[in-house]
């Protein structure tokens, strides 16, 4: 039995479990090495096609990264390790930049030093790189200029530029994404959709017809993709993405946070009053982000299949279980 070998950084985070599930459900024989600075509580005892080994380590240590690459010799690397909250990046910009840029630099430099040019690396970037845009710019395509306006976005742009340098200059096999907001059951409530869903479920559990929830700027429009569609895209990009190319991973549909709240409130059959907390409004924020997924559709054959309404329903079900417990 031939096994594909995947190294996944940031393994304790939201996306990695879904990627492992994707491989298992599609009966892809895989050996996975997960690494993260945080403990990992994920269990894979029922898996038949995927074997998982986890190691807790300092991803800012070049020697540790180099050792893992030399020992494991992955066919593919899914680089998920990141300081992924835009809001937190405003509060701790130094940590945001270090954890998004220095870890990635360790990874690509170790690949260069070990001459591992056959290993395919997916560098996961962000739609935040596009910055503030106008309606006339939409939908955003990969050739649109980038204009980062948050510490997180600057770090992601730096990672993308490093990817280009190591792909073009050193021949490292890197494919890049600009991933738009992805959502799904199990996402931490520091992220906006999960936070709103949790508040709504707590209102429902408290009885009555509804009540008040707290939010930031609910007029902003975002392009949300279900995490189960996202990991499908990541797999196809690792397999078939073109070296040195950037791909939007998005739904192509924009929706305001106000409308998201209305959809979830209707699903729960409650009425909601939205209290705007100025503390949750960022110093600078993109008012509208909607992407074009034409490139990834055409070149890779990916398409998002899970409607937003289904994603939101599944997230509410997750929080109903969590709140009950």
Summarize the structure.
With 325 residues, the protein is an alpha/beta fold. The chain is 41% helix and 19% strand.
How are the SSEs ordered, and which strands pair?
Layout: E1 4-9, H1 14-25, E2 30-36, E3 50-56, H2 62-72, E4 76-79, H3 86-91, H4 93-113, E5 120-126, H5 151-169, E6 173-179, E7 182-183, H6 192-205, E8 210-215, E9 221-222, E10 225-226, H7 227-240, E11 246-249, E12 255-256, H8 257-268, E13 271-276, H9 294-300, H10 308-324
Parallel strand pairs: 1-2, 1-4, 2-3, 4-5, 5-6, 6-11, 7-10, 8-13
Antiparallel strand pairs: 9-12
Can you tell me about this structure?
- The chain contains 10 helices and 13 strands.
- It has 325 residues and is an alpha/beta fold.
- The protein has 2 domains: 4-183 and 224-252 and 291-305, 3-Layer(aba) Sandwich (Rossmann fold); 192-220 and 254-289 and 311-324, UDP-galactose 4-epimerase, domain 1 (Alpha-Beta Complex), CATH 3.90.25.
- The chain has a 7-stranded parallel sheet with strand order 3-2-1-4-5-6-11, with helices on both faces. Strands 7-10 form a two-stranded parallel sheet. The protein has a two-stranded parallel ribbon with strand order 8-13.
- Helix 5 (151-169) links the parallel strand 5 (120-126) and strand 6.
- Helix 6 crosses helix 10 (308-324).
- The longest helix has 21 residues, at 93-113.
- The radius of gyration is 20 Å and the shape is globular.
- The model has no long low-confidence stretch (mean pLDDT 94).
């Amino acid at each position: 039995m031939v096994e594909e070998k995947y190294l996944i950084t940031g393994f304790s985070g939201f996306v990695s479990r879904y990627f492992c599930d994707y491989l298992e459900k599609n009966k892809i024989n895989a050996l996975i090495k997960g690494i993260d600075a945080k403990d990992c509580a994920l269990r894979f005892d029922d898996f038949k096609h995927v074997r998982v080994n986890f190691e807790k380590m300092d991803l800012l240590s070049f020697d540790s990264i180099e050792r893992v690459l030399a020992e494991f010799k992955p066919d593919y690397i899914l680089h998920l390790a990141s300081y992924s909250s835009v809001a937190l990046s405003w509060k701790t910009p130094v940590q945001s930049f270090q954890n998004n840029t220095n870890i990635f630099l360790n990874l690509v430099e170790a690949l260069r030093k070990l001459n591992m040019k056959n290993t395919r690396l997916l560098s996961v970037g962000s739609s935040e790189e596009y910055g503030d845009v106008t309606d006339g710019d939409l939908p955003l395509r990969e050739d649109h200029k980038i204009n980062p306006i948050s510490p997180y976005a600057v770090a992601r742009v730096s990672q993308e530029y490093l990817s280009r340098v190591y792909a073009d200059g050193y021949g490292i096999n890197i494919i890049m994404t600009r991933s738009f907001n992805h959502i799904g059951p199990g996402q931490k409530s520091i992220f906006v959709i999960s936070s709103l869903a949790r508040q709504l479920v707590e209102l429902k559990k408290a009885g009555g017809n509804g009540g008040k929830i707290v939010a930031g700027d609910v007029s902003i429009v975002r392009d949300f993709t279900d995490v189960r569609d996202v990991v499908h895209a990541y797999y196809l990009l690792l397999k078939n993405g073109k070296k040195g190319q950037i791909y939007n991973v998005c739904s192509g549909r924009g929706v305001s946070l106000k409308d998201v709240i209305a959809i979830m409130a209707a699903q729960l059959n409650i009425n909601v009053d939205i209290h705007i907390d100025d503390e949750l409004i960022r110093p600078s924020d993109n008012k509208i982000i909607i992407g074009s997924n034409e490139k990834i559709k055409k070149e890779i054959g990916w398409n998002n299949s899970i409607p937003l309404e289904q994603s939101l329903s599944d997230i509410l079900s997750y929080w109903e279980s969590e709140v009950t417990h």
